[in-house]
Amino acid sequence: MSDFFKNKRVWITGASSGIGAALAKAFAEHGAHLILSARNEQELNRIAATCTDAGAASVIVQPLDLARHDTIPGIAEQILKRVGKLDILINNGGVSQRDLVRNTSLEVDKKLMDVNFFGTVALTKAVLPNMLTHQLGHIVTVTSLTGKFGSPLRSSYAASKHALHGFFDSLRAELGQTPIKITLLCPGFIRTNVSVNAIVGDGSRQNKMDDATNNGMDPDVFARKALRVIEKGREEANIGGKEVLGVYLKRFFPGYFSRLIRKVKVT
């Protein structure tokens, strides 16, 4: 096992389940110091215990609601006072969507942007000065393949993920003369409760597991692949099954992809 992440200070949002929980466990197995954040403190405590058993050097549980942008700077300040420096920020928290544009209220569109985009940007801005002061840090943002192409039933979700790509590509360029790294992780279908927790047009939960998600990659497999990407300092990685081919079809055969995405089963 590589000791690259040993004693690294890693803050993970959306850590109470799914990809975030799998990443937390993977970093724990490498002996990292963890800060785990999400809204559900009870689930965070459960994941924290799992991480301690897996070998984490230490675990801090810090509840965080990405939609409450005004609270984020203060929470970040408290965490940075406790840990001193932050080696890796994993922007993973977010919410997905399953509904047609015509059925989705503008309030739901705003919520998706508030959580997925503005919440992530707020936390990044809150920790960036510390990274610049110490001239170290790696900002990793979990987006989605829908950050590379849109698909039915995910209009504002895809928009929020596209926005993250634009923001972090720009930030990477701005930080080009510093040691701070930016990585975008683009998952395909990963077997989590993302579709169960996805919101529909009126803002309620879908409460249903999509077949495509249920048949997706195991989150622990995703986490192992993600850690290899982070260790190598890659700028971007698409991680998933055959759905990753959509990125290349969109790039090289856009007309064909446009016709295909109208018919393909995306749930």
Nearest-angstrom radius of gyration? 18 Å
Strand ordering within the main sheet:
3-2-1-4-5-6-7
Q: CATH homologous superfamily, by name?
A: NAD(P)-binding Rossmann-like Domain
CATH fold node name: Rossmann fold
**Number of helical segments?**
10
**Domain module tally:** 1
For this structure, what is the CATH class? Alpha Beta
Percentage of helical residues? 40-55%
The span between the termini is: 36 Å
Please state roughly what percent of the residues sit in beta strands, choosing from under 5%, 5-15%, 15-25%, 25-35%, 35-45% or over 45%: 5-15%
- Give the uncertain stretches in residue-range form: none
Q: Tell me about the biggest sheet?
A: 7 strands, parallel
Encode the helix/strand succession as letters.
EHEHEHEHEHEHHHEHH
CATH architecture: 3-Layer(aba) Sandwich
Total number of β-strand segments? Answer: 7
Structural class: alpha/beta
Query: How confident is the prediction overall: mean pLDDT?
Result: 97
Which keywords apply here?
seven-stranded parallel beta sheet, Rossmann fold, alpha/beta, globular, 10 helices, 267 residues, single chain
